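[step 3/7] fold_predict: job queued, chain A
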Amino acid sequence: MDYATIMVHLDASRHVHQRLHLATQLALEFHAALIGLLAAGNPDPKAIRYFADGERYLASYKEWHRQIEDWARQAFEGATKGTAVTAEWRAPDWTTVSTVQADAHLADLLILGQRDPDDEEAFAEDHFVESVVLHCGRPVLVVPYAGRFSSVGKNVVVAWNGSREAARAIRDALPLLRRADNVHIVSYLQPGVLRDPWLSPVKHTVAWLSRHGVQASHEEPVVNGGGDETGKLLLSLAADRDVDLIVMGAYGHTRLREIVLGGMTRTLLESMTVPVLMSH
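[step 4/7] structure written:
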C-alpha cells in the first residue's frame, strides 16, 4: 500500500511553508493527491454572546479569517502549481480540533506542525497536535518548528517496544520504509524488568519488515530511566545517526477532558529535532 492521499494542515503560522514543502515532496514521490486543509481557529462564543461589541468582534474575526485564507491558499497553490500533484483546497468556515480529526479521514497521511510557543499566529486550540494524533485514526507526520528539512524518510529510526501502537506505527510507515536508504530499529530495555507476554520482541518486526523488502538493523540498549529519559536518548540517537525521520507509536489517553501523554510521546512532541511519524 502507498499513500494515495496526503493532507497538510495550514494556518497563519510562519512555519506553513516548511510543512508545504515536505507535503508536496511526499505527494510527488507517492503520486498522491494533496489536500490543503485550512484550520486557523474559530471565534470565541463568549465574546460574541456577552460582550457589548460582540457583533463587531465577529465581523473583525471574519475579516481576519478571510485574510488568512487568502494567504494560506496562495501559499498552497504556489507550492503545487507547475507540479504533477493533484491538489485540493479545503477551508471550512469555523474550524476546531474536531474538524481536523474528521477531515483527516479523507487522507492516508496527515501532516501537522509542532507547536511553537512563540508563534502567536498559529492555530492555538489547546492540545491541538496531541488530540489529532490520538483521535484521528491516521498516521500523523509532525514537522518540527525549528530547522529546515529538504527531505524526509531516507534515514529512519523506528522506536519499538512491541506494543499495539508501535506495530500500528510501523505498518502505517511502511510506504516510507520501503523507500528508505537506511532503517534502524531501537528497542530500549530496562534492567530487571520482564517484558509483558503481549509485547513482541524486536526480532519479530525485523522479520516482518524483511518480508516486505525492508532490511533493518536493530539494537536493544539498556536504560535506567522512564519514558522522558528514553525520549531524550532517542533524540540523541537520531542526531548521532543523522536521521531525517523517527517512527513511533503515540501513547496517551483522555482523563477528565485532559490529555495524559506517555513520557516518551510528550518528550518527542515538545523537543523533536526531526520529523516524527506517530500512530495511535
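[step 5/7] annotate
The chain has two domains: 5-143, 155-279.
The longest helix spans residues 54-80.
exit 0
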